[in-house]
């Protein structure tokens, strides 16, 4: 008799969750052991849709919750209400959430309220600072408390979960799915969707790609970052700064007011991940407060200066792929100049091994789900 398929419902709502869940959804769709259901909250709209289109994912459910100036409680309650209804209708065997967004937390709570098993992809990251990143540190901790299966991307993340007394049998080390799609998106002679990136003359230039839009960096920290970028562009004729700007008005207003019309600085709309990966590949250096870029840039052998005071990705600090630059203007300028002018330090960072993944995380996760649902007997090996 044919075994029933495992009904797996993947829930996500923002651009980076879609980027990192996309490869996994595609693996689940292709595998006969699973019936794959996708529910998006659309906590992000435009940026989410761009990623769905690239992966050719047509969500089975779309809660369409985004509104301008949305509060955390609005995101939580509207996603929670919608998700409980969807679970009642779709009756999944397993619900998957990713990382640390408010959508992930609401999805975890919905699974708990409806008695559905919960799998947490990118589990176990910790900064141990409740307010940085805010609200992500709490979102991921709360999700960890509720999850039944923990897909930790690295051994450090697994150890963090051990310390919280999570049953070791429920923790699996998978690598990060962010690295899975890097292999597919890079192309020689790539033509960008955003025309401004095709018009830039890259020859003889050192490109610095910048992204910064975290909630805890809004206001003065973001102003300091922008002022530092102005100084870097002014002091280095061979540098071009390219900054894809998040659509949040609180980000856009600050960035455009400080960096518009400055020689050597290009501001663009936010990029989808294929454009972003190809821009990273042409870059000399990445300055970012994003988590995903910290994982992806080392796959292109690009050093990262992290525009935050703490990172929940210390593997990159240990491996030498990342350095913490914080949000102090003078320190950002000093650390950037050091990498621009000191080739041996630059090469040391660029050549460090990527500790975040090997491109097979999604396949591992699919096998782990089969193991947890007793389709296969052997516990899959951890990512080393
Ligand atoms: C969200 C997540 C954060 C994640 C980040 C990745 C929360 C609370 N925040 O932060 O964990 O790291 O996504 O990008 O879960 N907007 C648009 N168009 C879009 C997307 C956003 O206009 O396509 C605007 C909206 O006005 C929205 C604002 O951006 O109100 C902020 O979006 P929100 O999802 O609340 O926070 P992010 O900073 O994007």
List the helices and strands and how they pair.
Blueprint: E1 6-12, H1 15-30, E2 34-40, H2 46-55, E3 61-62, H3 72-90, E4 94-98, H4 102-113, E5 117-121, H5 136-146, E6 149-152, H6 155-163, E7 171-173, H7 178-185, H8 195-199, E8 206-211, H9 220-235, E9 239-245, H10 249-259, E10 265-269, H11 273-282, E11 285-288, H12 291-296, E12 304-306, H13 314-319, E13 322-324, H14 329-341, H15 343-350, H16 361-372
Parallel strand pairs: 1-2, 1-4, 2-3, 4-5, 5-6, 6-7, 8-9, 8-11, 9-10, 11-12, 12-13
Bound molecules: uridine-diphosphate-N-acetylglucosamine.
Uridine-diphosphate-N-acetylglucosamine binds next to helix 1 and helix 2.
Would you give an account of this structure?
It is a single chain. With 384 residues, this protein is α/β, with parallel strands linked by helices. Helix content is 45%, strand content 16%. The strands form two sheets. A seven-stranded parallel β-sheet has the order 3-2-1-4-5-6-7, sandwiched between helices. A six-stranded parallel β-sheet has the order 10-9-8-11-12-13, sandwiched between helices. Helix 10 (249-259) links the parallel strand 9 (239-245) and strand 10 (265-269). Helix 1 (15-30) packs parallel to helix 2 (46-55), helix 3 (72-90) crosses helix 4 (102-113) and helix 9 (220-235) runs parallel beside helix 10. The mean pLDDT is 96. Uridine-diphosphate-N-acetylglucosamine is lined by residues 14-16, 43-47, 68-70, 72, 100-102, 135-136, 213, 215, 247-248.
């Amino acid at each position: 008799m044919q075994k029933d398929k495992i009904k797996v419902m993947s829930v996500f709502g923002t651009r980076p969750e879609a980027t990192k869940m996309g490869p996994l959804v595609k693996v689940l769709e292709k595998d006969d052991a699973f019936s794959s259901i996708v529910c998006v909250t659309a906590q992000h709209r435009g940026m989410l849709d761009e990623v769905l289109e690239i992966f050719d994912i047509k969500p089975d459910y779309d809660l369409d919750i985004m509104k301008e100036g949305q509060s955390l409680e609005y995101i939580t309650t509207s996603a929670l209400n919608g998700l409980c209804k969807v679970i009642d209708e779709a009756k999944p065997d397993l619900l998957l959430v990713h990382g640390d967004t408010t959508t992930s937390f609401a999805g975890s709570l919905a699974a708990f309220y409806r008695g559905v098993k919960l799998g947490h992809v990118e589990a176990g990251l910790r900064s141990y600072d409740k307010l940085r990143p805010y609200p992500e540190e709490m979102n991921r901790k709360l999700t960890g408390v509720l999850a039944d299966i923990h897909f930790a991307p690295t051994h450090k993340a697994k150890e963090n979960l051990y310390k919280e007394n999570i049953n070791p049998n429920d923790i699996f080390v998978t690598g990060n799915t962010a690295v899975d799609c890097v292999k597919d998106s890079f192309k020689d002679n790539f033509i960008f969707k955003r025309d401004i990136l095709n018009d830039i003359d890259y020859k003889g230039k050192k490109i610095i790609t910048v992204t910064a839009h975290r909630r805890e960096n809004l206001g003065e920290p973001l102003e300091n970052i922008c002022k530092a970028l102005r100084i870097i562009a002014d002091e280095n004729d061979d540098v071009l700064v390219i900054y894809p700007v998040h659509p949040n008005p609180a980000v856009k207003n600050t960035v455009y007011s400080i960096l518009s019309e400055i020689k050597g600085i290009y501001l663009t709309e936010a990029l989808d991940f294929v454009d972003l990966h190809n821009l990273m590949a042409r870059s000399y250096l990445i300055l970012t407060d994003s988590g995903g870029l910290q994982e992806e840039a080392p796959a292109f052998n690009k050093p990262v200066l992290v525009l935050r005071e703490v990172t929940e990705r210390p593997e990159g600090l240990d491996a030498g792929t990342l350095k913490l630059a914080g949000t102090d203007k003078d320190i950002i300028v000093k650390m950037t100049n050091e990498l621009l002018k000191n080739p041996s330090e630059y090469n040391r960072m660029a050549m460090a091994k990527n500790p975040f993944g090997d491109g097979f995380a999604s396949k591992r996760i699919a096998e782990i789900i089969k193991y947890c649902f007793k389709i296969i007997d052997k516990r899959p090996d951890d990512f080393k």
